[in-house]
From TrEMBL:
Superkingdom of origin organism: Bacteria
Domain EAL: 23-275
Residues shown, of full length: 348 to 624 of 642
Protein name as catalogued: EAL domain-containing protein
Length: 277
């Protein structure tokens, strides 16, 4: 932008290009990473509070780029979503999580579930239920072992189509969870109509315990139980938060207090300590 009459435009342009270039580079690198099977999953344990048992893991995508270093999913998931790469990435995540569960099952480590995060775009993929079926069958896994975490905000648009697909998934026995609950509460009216198993209280509310987070978490727990849904608190970092949630009747906890997300080998060791022991 050399000879441009509009001043602001000139100043604005180079920055825009830089950001665009960065996104395009990341997109190209992500495509390569998917082709080369270079992504990984980290597994964060979830504990049933009343029984003190490990009931599951959340699988979280990890990308350690050979030159750029570790790139956060908060950075690469949006890039995947805007480029369409979220479809192959989402399928890779489901396949990798099932492969891991099958490995654990072969070692006698079963009786818990693995949750994967699902993007809006994936719910518009009419082939998703068949893909999941085939993956579960190939790994000899019961559908109840797999849980899909869907963010609340994505249910707002196109709700009827989404609900239809969710019904098809749930009819197969796959568990459904609403992620980041409480951060987009305009969809609350849909809640009784959704085929759900679980609500996850967003970590921002848990972080506000003690304090403003108390009223909100207590209200979410009461509402979830009225709807016969299990409640998970995420982002639990300290004993004060844990104790508050326990007394409030929260079912499951997840967070650094119990464990950080673990590499597969670490997660296996964690299971040997907590499940098989
Ligand atoms: P999320 O689904 O809400 O996942 C929880 C995030 O909180 C994770 O960040 C996790 O590492 C972090 N976390 C867990 N315990 C604690 C804690 O005690 N304190 C704090 N401060 N943080 C905690 P992560 O792994 O960086 O993932 C960020 C987001 O990226 C996820 O948020 C999810 O929305 C998205 N994401 C990650 N993996 C996938 C994936 O495979 N597919 C899709 N579609 N999205 C993914
Ligand atoms: Ca999640
Ligand atoms: Ca969440
Ligand atoms: Ca989140």
């Amino acid at each position: 932008a050399k000879r441009n009459g509009r001043n602001g435009f000139e100043l604005f342009r180079p920055e825009m290009n830089q950001r665009n270039e960065q996104r395009l580079r990341l997109r190209a690198e992500l495509r390569k990473a998917l082709d080369h099977d270079a992504l990984e999953l980290a597994y964060q344990p979830q504990l049933a509070i009343a029984s003190d048992r490990v009931v599951g893991f959340e699988a979280l995508a990890r990308w350690n780029h050979p030159e750029l270093g570790p790139i956060s999913p908060a950075e690469f998931i949006p890039v995947a979503e805007e480029s369409g790469l979220i479809l192959p990435l989402g399928r890779w995540v489901i396949r990798a999580a099932c492969r891991q569960m099958a490995q654990w099952q072969a070692q006698g480590l079963a009786g818990f579930r693995v949750a994967v995060n699902v993007s809006a775009r994936q719910l518009r993929d009419a082939q998703l239920p068949e893909f999941i079926d085939a993956t579960l069958v190939a790994h000899r896994l019961a559908p109840e072992r797999l849980e899909l975490e869907i963010t609340e905000s994505l249910l707002l648009d196109n709700a009827e189509t989404h609900i239809a697909l969710l019904r098809r998934l749930r009819a197969r026995g796959i568990r459904l969870s609403i992620d980041d609950f409480g951060t987009g509460f305009s969809s609350m009216a849909y809640l009784p109509r959704l085929p759900l198993d679980q609500l996850k209280i967003d970590g921002s509310f848990v972080r506000a315990i003690p304090g403003d987070g108390e009223a909100i978490t207590t209200a979410i727990i009461a509402m979830a139980h009225h709807l016969r849904l299990e409640v998970v608190a995420e982002g639990v970092e300290d004993a004060v938060q844990f104790e508050y949630l326990r007394r409030a009747g929260c079912d499951v906890m997840q967070g650094y207090l119990l464990s950080r997300p673990l590499a597969p080998e670490q997660a296996t060791a964690f299971l040997h300590r907590h499940v098989a022991g």
